[in-house]
Amino acid sequence: MSTPSPASPPPAAATLTYGDGVLLRDGRPHRVLAGSLHYFRVRPEQWADRLRRLAALGLNTVDTYVPWNFHERTEGDVRFDGPRDLARFVRLAQEEGLDVIVRPGPYICAEWDNGGLPAWLTGTPGMRLRTSHGPFLEAVDRWFDELIPRVAELQAGRGGPVVAVQIENEYGSYGDDQAYVRRVRDALVARGVTELLYTADGPTPLMQDGGALPGELAAATFGSRPAQAAALLRSRRPGEPFFCAEFWNGWFDHWGEKHHVRSAESAAETVGGILDEGGSVSLYMAHGGTNFGLWAGANHDGGGIQPAVTSYDSDAPIAENGALTPKFFALREKLTALDGAAPERPLPADPPLLAPRELPVTRHAALLDALRAAAEPVPAPLPLSFEELSLASGLVLYEAEPLLPAGDHELTVTGLHDRAQVFVDGTPVAVLDRETASFTVSGTGARVRLALLVENQGRINYGPLLGQGKGILGGVRVERRLVHGWTIRPLPLDEWTPQDTARAAAAAPPDGRAGFATAALSVAEPADAFVALPGFGKGFLWVNGTLLGRYWEIGPQTTLYLPGPLLHPGDNTLTVLELERFGDRITLHDRPGLGPSEEYVETFD
């Protein structure tokens, strides 16, 4: 591990301290009233607006994760520019009078692809994630060498707004390698972190045992029963203040499930319970934002993958487009009524929206022809995984020409992650979405052209399957015989330039079924919109070359949030890659379509 330069300034006293169960800021009693807002889920042009809304909610602090894979997508290419400019986001928070909590991981969960860990790291053979495994620690050291000095420079003791830094993230829900958690803490300190350090884990003895560290503040994450959580922490850590590091006032969504909501009354009541316990709190989320591109993660329920939707609205008090919700006002009433609360801020108006309209669609290249033209083929005797192709996300087109005797034959795919559309001689014959899945093909004694278009629907972000590979990890069999001789095309959709999508769209004539399509949107003055694709099945939407994310008819989400900064005056181009079935128009709406809802409150029994 590297150490700070001898020229580093001497450590400053921490801004937040505690004693006798009371949190202090510069020696005076204080509550952290925070809200999570992730810079990586919001367009940089909108950071200042969203921070202003968070302050208007009555909060004094913003917290954010830092996703490693967002900053170092390719090994060695670490970036802090544009949407990755963490320092700019933090300084904007300071301009709004907000303190900042930074949660650098290296693992963050956050329903973010791979829990924030880079695919190039988790795909390394033999890698042991979130442990004292030497190669993992060495990679974390290199990342922290880039990240943590930047965070240290933004600490309150050096004139910045950062008042606390989290150690790892809910480690007690994952493992019990305490040496690893201590190593993460030591890595932060060695690189200049002098402000308050804390751990955050679920409110059970098992979770706190696994994640908390002696000598560092132990916080809890929960959605209900604040008195029970406070009692547990105080019984284990007498003298420490009660801090709910994540209060789940909403929840995230998976494709194919309902939209999760939590009533304003329920959220406000539980926040009131935390405050009645003398606690500090961070709302998760205060403003959720969007999983733009292909950054949405996935969970696994034991029966199969549960990919997260593109929206990360999370039923937060500040909606995905910045609108102020009834939950905003219910929580604001609680927060601003506290003794010593900051003066109420002016309430910003909801952001403007484009008028609803319909956009006719022009169809372009057919699906398989377009994708064949979009990538150079990679020959291999057996299917290669995404990791072997150095592909973090997107699609892979696998093609082979097995000889099939006359009659019906069962073909089986093993180790499928996550979803495959199967084509025989260009005709779709099956959709597979299980790790081992079979389909039937009729043979004539000749070779058939077999194509499997495999989609990575999001890397698992939570639990023991973290880091699981993508693609066809086993093989394809005709009955018991393996199919060899593959041509493979990696398709990193979220890395494509506007020229890449235009070239693919023009590569072949349409077939009327699936493939590329475009629509023109003319605006006099850019503003936000919600985009729907009625009649379309499943695919991806770009706006002026920026990939908004996935859409899928199974819902619950039926619109994609289109931020105004992605548009310009005049004509704008919407590009669709449809995998299954074209619709004939794209529609703009002035409200989100997040689907039928159900009340959801996460609890620990």
UniProtKB/TrEMBL annotation:
Keywords: Glycosidase, Hydrolase. SUPFAM superfamilies: (Trans)glycosidases, Galactose-binding domain-like. It is an enzyme of class 3 (hydrolase). PROSITE patterns: GLYCOSYL_HYDROL_F35 (PS01182). It holds the Pfam family Glyco_hydro_35. InterPro entries: B-gal_1-like (IPR026283), BetaGal1-like_ABD1 (IPR048912), BetaGal_gal-bd (IPR048913), Galactose-bd-like_sf (IPR008979), GH (IPR017853), Gly_Hdrlase_35_cat (IPR031330), Glyco_hydro_35_CS (IPR019801), Glycoside_Hdrlase_35 (IPR001944). It catalyses: Hydrolysis of terminal non-reducing beta-D-galactose residues in beta-D-galactosides. Residues 517-572 form the Beta-galactosidase galactose-binding domain. Belongs to the glycosyl hydrolase 35 family. This is Beta-galactosidase. It comes from Streptomyces thinghirensis. The lineage of its organism: Bacteria, Bacillati, Actinomycetota, Actinomycetes, Kitasatosporales.
